[in-house]
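Hi support team,

I've been running sequence recovery on a batch of backbones for a student project. Most finish fine, but this one hangs at about 90% for roughly twenty minutes before it completes. I'm not sure whether the input is malformed or the queue is just slow. I've pasted the structure tokens below so you can try to reproduce it. Let me know if you need the job ID as well.

Thanks,
M.K.
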């Protein structure tokens, strides 16, 4: 029928079971924090024909779509469709590792759809192919020196490509071990890190929480197996890097990427000194250049002199190219602009003489919260559709641990409780406003 599948699953083996079952038809990776309205929109926009999920998430799903419940994955599944239920025995997959060379290099069929880039108010479905994802996985293996001895603690959602590529696909492709955590529990994670884990990947808020947990539990990671700590998703404060290295004896290395690039583009790789305060140098097989900024909402600057990258030391827009860069958005929508084969990221940076790139701010209308992207125009669109609302303004409130909180200023004949309930039904958990100000009128 040409219809896609969707995955609404926690960070767990079930996610990988569903992803494998979706091979050949594309899978919409839905954030586990998504609200029912967001799930319904993505399923309709991507022409989804069935959803892989668990009983805990089933109440959020739109009516009428067949669902595959993976509560007992990878051994069993329960298919619910047209009012009938069928039990499927998936067999045992214990001990199997992915063997990458069995996969055909360069497959250009779509593998995953990730909704992002809501700069104009509505998220767009970025189409990632097998070629895109495998290119970034292989670059990850090289840059992070991943081997079969790796034991990764997977804390990030697999629905986020940072989690899927770095904490699942890369270690599994070389026969390593992955321990998943469906919900991040800092105290439990701290214990696991002291018990044979070699790699942990997270956003700044994760490492803040882990440092607090180490102190509460008296965890000492010096002399442990931990060798690599990687942070991305938001700007990493230097003081957090300093404290992490002091407490653990391991450098906290920053990386950078975006969903449209599968996602990693920059990293403080292991064969070079860690540059604190920098996002690293170009990932293997990824070109990174600094260009004069394109206009946003993503209007492309087409003048000839803007085709060439700027010299080192000159601030501009970070642009990337390589096999990891996606082919476009569903429906041929325009999101992030391109300059030829370069993808503009909407992020401002500067490259130093040693090749490392430092982040200088956002060009696109967006901010981050706990490592997730928040687009003010999306929130303004959703809340602006509420009866009684005449105007909406969204602002970021800087927060030392979450990066930002959300201020929602609403004009109209509504209460803050009305607005809160409206947002809970229509926006992901990380998009919920921290402060709601009502202005009469």
């Amino acid at each position: 029928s040409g219809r896609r599948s969707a995955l609404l699953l926690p960070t767990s083996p079930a996610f990988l079971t569903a992803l494998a079952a979706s091979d050949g038809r594309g899978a919409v990776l839905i954030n586990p924090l998504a609200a029912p309205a967001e799930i319904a929109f993505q399923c309709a926009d991507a022409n989804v024909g069935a959803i892989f999920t668990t009983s805990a998430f089933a109440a959020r799903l739109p009516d009428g779509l067949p669902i595959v419940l993976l509560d007992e994955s990878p051994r069993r599944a329960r298919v619910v469709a047209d009012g009938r239920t069928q039990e499927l025995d998936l067999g045992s997959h214990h001990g199997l590792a992915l063997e990458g060379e069995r996969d055909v290099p360069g497959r250009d069929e779509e593998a995953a759809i990730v909704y992002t880039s809501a700069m104009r108010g509505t998220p767009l479905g970025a189409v990632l192919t097998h070629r895109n994802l495998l290119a970034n996985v292989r670059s990850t293996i090289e840059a992070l020196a991943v081997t079969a001895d790796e034991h990764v603690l997977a804390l990030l959602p697999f629905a986020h490509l940072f989690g899927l590529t770095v904490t699942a696909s890369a270690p599994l492709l070389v026969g390593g071990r992955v321990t998943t955590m469906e919900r991040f529990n800092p105290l439990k994670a701290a214990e696991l890190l002291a018990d044979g884990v070699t790699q942990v990947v997270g956003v700044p808020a994760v490492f803040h929480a882990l440092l607090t947990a180490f102190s509460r539990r008296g965890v000492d990671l010096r002399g442990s197996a931990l060798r690599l700590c990687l942070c991305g998703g938001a700007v990493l404060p230097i003081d957090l890097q300093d404290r992490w290295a002091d407490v653990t004896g391991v450098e906290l290395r920053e990386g950078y990427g975006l969903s449209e690039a599968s996602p990693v583009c920059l990293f403080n790789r292991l064969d070079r000194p860690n540059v604190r305060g920098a996002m690293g140098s170009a990932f293997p097989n990824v070109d990174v250049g600094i260009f004069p900024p394109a206009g946003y909402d993503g209007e492309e600057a087409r003048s000839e002199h803007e085709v060439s990258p700027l010299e080192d030391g000159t601030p501009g827009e970070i642009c990337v190219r390589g096999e990891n860069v996606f082919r476009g958005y569903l429906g041929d929508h325009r999101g992030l602009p391109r300059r030829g084969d370069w993808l503009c990221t909407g992020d401002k940076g500067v490259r130093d003489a040693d090749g490392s790139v430092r982040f200088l701010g956002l060009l696109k209308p967006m901010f981050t919260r706990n490592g997730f992207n928040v687009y003010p125009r999306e929130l303004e669109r959703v809340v602006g559709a509420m009866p009684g609302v005449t105007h909406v303004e969204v602002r970021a409130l800087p927060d030392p641990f979450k990066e930002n909180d959300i201020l929602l200023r609403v004009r109209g004949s509504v209460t803050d409780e009305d607005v809160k309930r409206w947002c809970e039904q229509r926006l992901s958990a990380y998009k919920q406003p921290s402060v709601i100000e009502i202005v009469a009128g």
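--
Follow-up from support: It reproduced on our side and the slowdown came from queue contention, not your input. The chain has a mean pLDDT of 93. No action needed from you.
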